[in-house]
Amino acid sequence: DGGGAWEPYQRGHRLPEALAAHIQQAVSIATEDSTAVVVFSGGQTRTDAAARSEAQSYLDLAIANDIPGAKALLGDTTPPSGSADDAPATTPKGRRIFVDDFARDSYENVIFSIARFAEVTGGRTPQRITVVGFAYKEKRFLELHRHAIRFPPDRFSYVGIDEPSLRPDEHATATNRPLSDAKTMARVKQDLYMCRLGLATRRKRNPNRRAVPYYLTAPAELRALLLHCGPELFQGQLPWDPRATEPQP
C-alpha cells in the first residue's frame, strides 16, 4: 500500500489518490495550453526510495498509468535515424514535461521549478506560474512563497486538490484527521526562504548529499534570488520585474 513511503503525519490518509489527481491536473493544464511546461518537483529525499526522486516517481506514474496527454508532453522520443548508441542524449523535440530532482521543501519546489524551466528553455523564465498541490497548502504558496520571490500575484495561481473524503465505512481518527498547515506556515513566516530554521530539514532530506546545479545554470538575476537567505525580502532585480520603458526615438 506504499505506507513505507509516507511521513508519520501522512499515514492514514488517502494520499496516493490525491497525488494522482495532482499529476493528472498538471498534465491537463499543459495539454490545454500549448505554451505551458510541466515541471514535477521533488528531490531524492528518502533513503528508502534509493536514488529515485519524488519528481521522477510522479512522471513515471503519469506514464505508467497512461494519464491522458502525458506521453504527448514527452515530445518526439524517436532517436534520429543513423544515430549511434553512444550518441549524446538530447531533449526530445517538443518535450514539455520535465522533472526537478533537487527540491527539499515547498519553497524550493517553487524556485527550483523556475530554475529548471530556465534550463530547458534556454534561460527564459515563466510568464505565468500555476502550482498544483494540496488545497490546505494554498495560503503558504500564494501568501508566502509567491511573496518571497516577488512574483506578480495576477500571474501566480494555485490549484488545490486534497485527498478524497472519507468513505461511508470510515471514521475520523487521530491518523486521518484533516491535515493542517498551521505549524509550517508559522515557521515559513519566520524563515521566508527556509534556509535558517529550515536548514536541518534540507540536510535531512538530502541523504545522498546531492549538489544543487541551479546555482551554476540559472540566469544571473535568478541566481541571486536562489542564493538569498533572508530574513529580509529579496530586493534585487528579478526576471519578472517590470522593465523600464524604452525611450522613444
Give the helix/strand layout.
Layout: H1 15-32, E1 38-41, H2 54-64, H3 70-73, E2 97-100, H4 106-120, E3 129-133, H5 138-149, E4 156-160, H6 182-190, H7 199-204, H8 214-217, H9 220-227
Parallel strand pairs: 1-2, 3-4
Helix pairs in contact: 1-2, 4-5
Task: Characterize the structure shown.
One of its GO terms (cellular component) is cytoplasm. This is DUF218 domain-containing protein. InterPro entries: C57A10.07/YOR238W, Rossmann-like_a/b/a_fold. With 249 residues, the protein is mainly α. It has nine helices and four strands. It starts with 14 loop residues before the first helix and ends in a 22-residue tail after the last helix. The chain has a two-stranded parallel ribbon. Strands 3-4 form a two-stranded parallel sheet. The chain is globular, with a radius of gyration of 19 Å. The longest helix has 18 residues, at 15-32. It has a single domain (11-75, 93-164, 177-227), classed as Rossmann fold (3-Layer(aba) Sandwich). Helix 5 (138-149) links the parallel strand 3 and strand 4 (156-160).
Low-confidence stretches: 1-6, 8-12, 166-176, 244-249
Query: Helicity, in percent?
Result: 25-40%
How is the CATH topology named? Answer: Rossmann fold
Query: Structural class, from helix and strand content?
Result: mainly alpha
Radius of gyration: 19 Å
Task: Please indicate the count of domains.
Answer: 1
H/E series: HEHHEHEHEHHHH
Largest sheet: 2 strands, parallel
Sheet with most strands: strand arrangement? 1-2
Q: What's the number of helices? A: 9
- Give the termini distance in whole angstroms: 67 Å
CATH C-level class is Alpha Beta
Binned strand content: 5-15%
| Overall geometric form | globular
> How many beta-strand segments?
4
Named CATH architecture = 3-Layer(aba) Sandwich
Overall residue-averaged pLDDT value: 84
